[in-house]
Amino acid sequence: MAEKLLLSALVNNHAGVLLRVAGLFSRRGFNISSLTVCETENPKFSRMTIVSEAEPNTFRQIEQQLLKLEDVIKVIRLKDEKYVSSELLLVKVRAENKDRPAVLQTISKYGARVKDIGHLTITSELTGIPSIIDEFVKELEAHTIIELTRSGVTALESGDISINDDID
Question: Could you tell me if 147 and 89 are in contact, meaning their C-beta atoms sit under 8 angstroms apart?
Fold first, then answer.
């Protein structure tokens, strides 16, 4: 049975690295359910947070295949909730005059922020763990979601350990 695989990869920050990493997953038949990439505190490197589903016996194989790519510096598997993570959601909901109080109440209940108010819609932003974002979206479905976008999970290992440890 497939399980969630959450990887954090430190890679060289230049063109083509994302394509090579995504291609590796594609060639092996693994779907990437979430992928975030950003420059790190050191502009030479980018950090990728990759979420995929795989059989547990293939987790190590995926890590090893990533490390074979010349631009991949380090890969760590984030597991057992020993990491902190967050995701960003922007969602536009139908909110005509009579519906606005209920929409605003749901936004407030989850600690989301109103980003834009149109004549017929309200756009809000929520950051948090995916399960809370899923709950928020489910509640907003009663108000007709016009559109939404999610950033994907970004994560760091908990505690004092850093992916930069042992990197020259």
Answer: no
